[in-house]
Write a structure and sequence with these properties.
By secondary structure, the chain is an alpha/beta fold. The chain is 31% helix and 23% strand. It folds into 2 domains: 192 residues, Stationary-phase Survival Protein Sure Homolog, Chain: A (3-Layer(aba) Sandwich), CATH 3.40.1210; 40 residues, no CATH class. A 9-stranded mixed sheet has the order 3-4-2-1-5-6-7-13-8, with helices on both faces. A two-stranded antiparallel sheet has the order 9-12. The structure holds manganese (II) ion (MN).
């Protein structure tokens, strides 16, 4: 049977992961490789400066002293008996909508799977929702992905409403309105400290976004693309390099002439990947 990998960012003991395990049990040899403790909002971090030690908790269940992306990296690149045919991350306790996907450990695990060439799905549930219901939706989508695959470098970000869903909508990411508030407090020794990420999240009120779909009681399915290049900006900024190169030559006092392209390229290739 094919290997299916489940992970999350709420930790290996989270209820949402257990629900996912039950719902997807018959899709293949289902392995759980998940962080030993909660890693929410850790983003796409990889642990490069200490060893990763999986601890076996069950027949196909492992706790890892690392991030969700560590878990996927480990599992896909050789820890499991075979590379997974599918990665499902979740079911996250709380939504991962709009701009927030960039902070999300849940979504980042699916990004890692996608970057490693494995079709990947991230599933999140509105606070107070039913994990088993969300996991059944994950199963529907997983079956579809296993049959038809996903476009290149594309993952599915799925958010499930708390009440019984009215249906499934394909959406785009919504955008957060940042109110610019940090909370300043003073500690007993008179020093200021700050809380970030406080305050009520506000969102642009736009149709066809993930936020609107979940708000209206639909399951939101957003295809996310991992080519972060802004292709339109490549055109718009087209005239920058010539001017900037001339300025650079002026600053470095080098006589105007063609940029030493080959040398620059060699230099950048010597840099180690993922060094920072
Ligand atoms: Mn989480």
């Amino acid at each position: 049977m094919s290997v299916v990998l489940l992970t999350n960012d709420d930790g290996v003991h989270a209820e949402g992961l257990a629900a996912l395990g039950r719902a997807l049990a018959e899709l293949g040899d289902v392995y759980i490789v998940a962080p030993e403790r909660e890693q929410s909002a850790c983003g796409h971090a990889l642990t490069l400066h200490r060893p990763i030690r999986p601890v076996q908790l069950g027949e196909r269940r492992f706790a890892v002293n690392g991030t969700p992306s560590d878990c996927v990296n480990l599992a896909v690149l050789g820890f499991l008996p075979a590379p997974p045919v599918l990665v499902v991350s979740g079911v996250n306790h709380g939504t991962n909508l709009g701009d927030d996907v960039t902070y999300s450990g849940t979504v980042s695990a699916a990004m890692e799977g996608t970057l490693l060439g494995v079709p990947s799905i991230a599933v999140s549930l509105v606070d107070g929702g039913d994990f088993d219901a969300a996991a059944r939706i994950a199963r529907l989508l997983a079956l579809r992905v296993l049959v038809v695959g996903l476009p290149r470098k594309t993952l599915l970000n799925v958010n499930v409403p708390a009440s019984a869903p009215r249906g499934i909508r394909l959406t785009r990411l919504g955008h957060r309105v940042y109110s610019g508030k940090i909370i300043e407090q003073v500690d007993p020794r008179g020093r200021s400290h700050y809380w970030i990420g406080g305050g009520d999240p506000k969102w642009e009120d736009l149709e066809d976004t993930d936020m609107a779909a979940v708000h209206e009681g639909y399951v939101s399915v957003t295809p996310l693309h991992l080519d972060l290049t802004n292709h339109r900006a490549l055109m718009e900024l087209n005239d920058w390099p010539a001017g900037l190169s001339a300025q650079l030559r002026g600053e470095t006092g080098r006589a105007p002439g063609p940029a030493p392209k080959a040398a620059a390229r060699r230099g950048s290739q010597q840099r180690k990947p993922r060094s920072g």
